[in-house]
Structure formats: structure tokens, C-alpha cells
Amino acid sequence: MANLILSISGGAIAGIIVAIVLILTSIILMFLTRYKKCPSDKIMVIYGKIGKNSDGTSRSAKCIHGGAAFVIPVIQAHAFLDLTPISISVDLKNALSKQNIRVDVPSRFTVGISTESGVMQNAAERLLGLSLSEIQELAKDIILGQLRLVIATMEIEEINNDRDKFLEAVSRNVESELKKIGLRLINVNVTDISDESGYISALGKEAAAKAINAAKISVAEADKEGSIGAANALKEQRINVSQAEADAIKGENEAKAEIANAQATLREKEAEATKIATVAEKTKNAEALEASYSAEKLAETARADREQATLVADVIVKTDIEKRRKEIEAEAEAEQIRRRAKGEADAIYAKLEAQARGIKAMLDNQAQGYAEIVKAAGGDANAAMRLMITDKMENLVKAQVEAIKNVKIDKITVWDSGNNSDGKTSTANFLSGLMKSLPPLTDLFDMAGLQLPEILNTEKKTEAVDTSDEATAK
Questions:
Q1: What pTM was computed for the model?
Q2: What does the pLDDT look like over 199-223, one tens digit per residue?
Q3: At the topology level of CATH, where does 84-197 sit?
Q4: Which helix (H) or strand (E) holds 70?
């Protein structure tokens, strides 16, 4: 049952996690799909619930050019206005001028949706959803009306002669009206201006005739001035030629004199220069020799200094190298000694540590053995001691035997004077003293809680020895 509950809980948790992931994915996808970017050649218009203006009125649309914005689902939508320029052909006919003369003004206007802040809002309110042809027709109507208005305020001469003034007035009037629907004027091109009465043509013919007459007068004046100028030029030519010839002869003479003076001066200057050059050459040669000798002297001095420095450097370098070699050898030897000493110390330490571990292990084992003996004796320490002594009794007896094993008693000579004390002879005393030299086994057996066998009883053995001594004396 518990496993079933855990399985159900685990499945529920997994379902919740999957649901959360799906919700987050949907939110992210919705955000990505509703985040709209505006191309550079368009205006993005976001409409719906936008917000309020500064005066508290609701905004009709939000315009964005060259950016991006998040379009809130359900309550907002978006559309684009194309910024492509629109070319409009305006063939204006029978426009009444200030002089009541009707004129024809064929022209071409280029307009486009404005990106200016307030004008762009007008475009969003008045042009959104219209096709290109519809926008073109709307702009054409506005341009025709303003073009007729401008022509009505100007005379034919102004329109025909001062085109800049005419175009400026047209641009000013048309631009102000186009801004009201969100458009801006890009270019105006008036191809030709004509009228039905032929007034403009007559003005052209008059201007042409005036130009032709003025040109003829200019040609005649130019011919007259040319003839007079030719005669004056010939006169001045003759006078100038004669004057030039006289001036030339005078100039030649003066030039020859100047040449002679110049040659004399040149020769004088050359002699002076030769003298100065000779002196300078000799001086420079002497200075060069002196500089050469000084340089050779400096070179020899430098060479001697270099050789001396080389010798000194060789000695110093060799000495430094030898000194460094000895220092390195000494350091190496000291390092070897330190390493050997460290190795020996490590070996002694390891040996002592091993011995200590062996002694500790032996003592631990011995203590464990004693503990087992006490445990076997039922926890009685005295009984345990008697058991240990009993175990070592064989070794104790062996030690007693070893004490007199090497005594040579093959032949014993006893000198007895016959003066016996306590009824014992000298021989009996000797044997009794020999037996007493052994450790008292009776005491040992008593300490162990044991009884010495009769054969090992010292007192009985002493009596037996005494009886043997008496029998021998008899």
C-alpha cells in the first residue's frame, strides 16, 4: 500500500513538473512570437489599448520606426506602413493665374510617409490600411489644389522667369497640407509651363528678339573696337619696334661692358679662390696628419688597455670559476654528508622503532598470557602464581643440577682427626655442606603450595649421609 501511494505521489509530481514546463514553454513562445521588430523601410503601428495622452485622452496608436516592441496578445495588434517613395504625375491644366490667364503646368511630385513624430501619428490615423494607389490619389488631390492656389497668387512672368520662387511656394504650401495626412514632400519637378492664349510664347519671342538685337549690336561694337584696336596696335608696334632696336643696341653695349667687368672680376676671384684653396688644402692636410697621429696614439692606448683588461679578466674569471667550483663541490659534499647522516638517523630510528614494537608485542603477548593464566586459575592471583612456578619447576631443578654438575668427586680424601661434634665426622660435614649449597627447594615448593617429594627432602638426605659416614668410620 505504501509503495502504491509513493508511486501515485511520484506520478503526480512528474505530471505537475511536465505541466509547469509546458506552461513556461508556452509563455516563452508567446513572448517570442509577440515581440515584433520594425524594418528600417517601414513604420510599425501598434493599435488597440495603448494608453493615454498627456491631456488624459486615449491614444489611438503607437508608431515605431527602426526598433522593436512587445505586442500584448488579445488587447493589441500591429500593422506596417511602407516608407517607399511614391511618384505622382500631376498634369495641371487651365489653372488661373493672377493675370486671369489660364496656364498648363505639367509636373511630377515625389512624396512619402513621414517619420516625424507628430506627422507619423497622422499617417497611422489616416493612411493605415490604404493601398498605394489610394494614398497616391489622395496626395494627388491635395497637390492639385495647392498648385492651383500658388499659381493664382503669381503672375505669368514670375512663374516663367523665377522658377525657384515658384517651386519654393509650391513646396511650402503642398508640404504643410501633406503633413496633415502623414506625408512629406520629397521632390518637385516642373517640366514645362504653357498657356492657351500664347502669352508665354509671345514673351519668349520678345525675349528672343531682344536677345538677337542685343547680340547684333554687340557684334557691331566688337567689330568697331576691333578695327580701332588693330590700327592702334600697328602704330604701337612700329614705335615699340624702333624703341626696342635702340634699347637692344644700348643693351648690347652695356652687356659687353658688363661681360668684360665680370670676366675680370671672375679671374680675380678665381686667383683669390685658388690661393685660399691651396692654403686650406695644406692646413687640412696638416690637421689630417695630426688627427691621424692622435688617432693612432689613442688606438694604441686603447689596445694596451684592452690587452690589460683581457689579462685581468682572464685571471679574475679563472679565479672566480675555480672559487665557484670549490664552493659547489663543498656544497655537494656537505649535502652528501647531510643525506648520509639523515639516512643513518632514519635507519637507527627505524631499528629502535622496530625493537620497541617487538618488545611491546612480546610484553603484550606475555601480559595476555598472564591474563589467560589468571583466568584459568579462576581469577585467583596466588593460584595463578603457583601454576606458573609449577610450570617452571623443571627449569629450577635443572638449574640446581647444573650448579654441581661439573664438580669432580671421583676421588675425595678426607682427613679426619676423630674429634667429631654432634656425632658427625668430617666426611659427613663435607657432604652435608655440599648439598646445602643447592637452593632450598623446600621453600620453593612451599611457596608454590606443593610438597617436596621424600626423595628430595634435605633433612632425610642429611641423616642418610650421617649414617653412611658412621658406617664408613667403623
A1: 0.40
A2: 665 555 555 555 566 655 666 666 6
A3: Tetrahydropterin Synthase; Chain A (3.30.479)
A4: strand 68-70
